[in-house]
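note to self: dont lose this again. the chain is below, predicted strucutre after it. 174 aa total, dont forget to put it in the shared folder this time
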Amino acid sequence: MKISLALLASGLLTAVYAVDSKSDSAPLLRRATKCGYKCTGEYPFGCQNNTAHPESRSCQPFTAAGCYSDPKQTILHGNYYALLRHYRDNVHEKCAWTCRKYNYYAVSGKWCQCGDRLKRWAVKVAPVRCEVPCPGNSTQSCATKNVDAVYIKVAHMGDRTVNAPKGWQGEPAI
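---
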């Protein structure tokens, strides 16, 4: 006997589970969410203001928002304070996972910050200033001192156009 359960959030189909009476597990079936992200495994995220575990790249809905001046590393507002973390080997996967419940993340060298919006004083700078290799992964760009490479959650972009810096091509950051 199979039992199916569909989880709905704000009218969106977010996950479909199927349980076989011969099994005690509830595997998640592959299902596209309304925002277009396919999530598999035990992390049924996507359109729920969360992102999936770093190993599930298809559920990482961040895209490049631009390169911004940030001399104090305080460019993002959080629910109370922006979350700021120091990673010895900063890579986008760690920062995106840390910031999965926020609308934005920004990387600069070894620093990762999370927030729900950019501060009003945020000023874009030349994209070349965000083309510095990340510590821990020289194939990714993490920005120079006093500058942040900022990423926005796709679900919160609306109709906004985002011009990605050279090398990013507007692809999800993770």
